Amino acid sequence: MMNTEVSLRNIKGTVNAPSSKSDVHRILIASALSDRPTKLLINSASEDIEATCSCLKMMGADIKKDGTGIIVTPIKNVPDEAVLNCVESGSTMRFLMPVASALGINATFTGSDRLTQRPHDPLLDALKKNGVTVHEGFPIKISEQLESGVFEIQGDVSSQFISGLMFALPLLEGNSEIRLTTPAESKPYIDMTVSTLKNFNIEIAEKGNSYFINGNGKYISPEEITAQGDWSNGAFWLCLGALSCITVNGLNNYSLQGDRRIIEILRSMGADVTLNYNSVSVKKNELHGIKIDASDIPDLVPVISALACFAQGTTTITNAKRLRFKESDRLKAVADLIETAGGDVTELPDSLIINGGMKLKDRFAFNCRNDHRMVMAATLFSFASDVTITDAQAVNKSYPHFFNDIKALGGVCNVINDR
Questions:
Q1: Residue 371 maps to which CATH number?
Q2: pTM, rounded to two decimals
Q3: Residues annotated as part of the active site
Q4: Which of 184, 206, 226 is the last residue of a domain?
Q5: Where are the alpha helices (DSSP H) in 11-144?
Q6: Which of 145, 304, 353, 394 yields a CA-CA distance of 20 to 30 A from 207?
Q7: Is 365 helix (H, G, I), strand (E, B) or coil?
Q8: For residue range 397-417, what is the model confidence (pLDDT) as tens digits?
């Protein structure tokens, strides 16, 4: 456990966005299923990315790092069995369960206690209806070959279920359909998967609430590909810019990443936002509360909620129930954070109502529940308060050099306990 004292008073400057964890997951998996090696260019990795690399190696891929990225040699000799430790990465587990079953691997999926509590049943039920045997309990054990056909699955629990099936179904002999029984939430993440697959010669047709996938697909590597900058992690800096002046380089203004919506949100709140080629600058301006539908942008909720405390008026965030099943119960964690900081918040079953303009505490400590998004949200408060963050090491899940970037911009980060 790492406890860190943070202060961002008077911080400003330019920072490079880390490589998108969401983009890297997808490229790694497509590369491992491809016809020849792929070089993935990235500027940073993370614990979740390491989990995906480790699991793909256990499935038969060869993955090596060099000075500029990751070289993936695709799976050639598929093992009969594999134990896949996904650590805390829900993306790793949900993407690879269908892939392992499509490859005919008898796979055991394990990970952290919190990962075991996150919902997986809709995906497992769809696999069971199409030839896979799922053994009860955790670790999750699957066996038997996945069969092509119709896969009915809820769209409002996790987009990762749909993405995992999209990676797997082209590997099967027959054609398949993914039929959503409820409207898709976080659909931009599904769109990202479709785009990644297209880069690897796999076409997916969308019609109504269904996706159609041809069998016997051939993943063809582009040989070299650059991961996009991460709008989810970049959002921390953009929100901080709304209180000071920050430029974030490496953000593709035409990205399919749903969290690009942070630009629209900040402008609606009154921030001064300038889009440049591959970068975004945000300057301080008078901020006011707004209404936000979080159904497609759950990862933005913690940091937007923190920023809302600095705005005048009320910010209402709705359709955020899925946050209760992340690395922590994020709705409760965000509400606790705001109350601890001296703010005014009402927590509802799927919403938060935040009254801004309150006098925040000069100093407070907060336990971030081993949740990387909560570390960043708590850090934003250190623009006005001296904050001690417990479980600060959780940020390594997606952004290992987060505190180094803070120091580079003039912020203060002091580790006071590391055990």
A1: 3.65.10.10
A2: 0.95
A3: 299
A4: 226
A5: 21-32, 47-58, 90-102, 113-117, 121-128
A6: 145
A7: strand
A8: 999 999 999 999 999 999 886
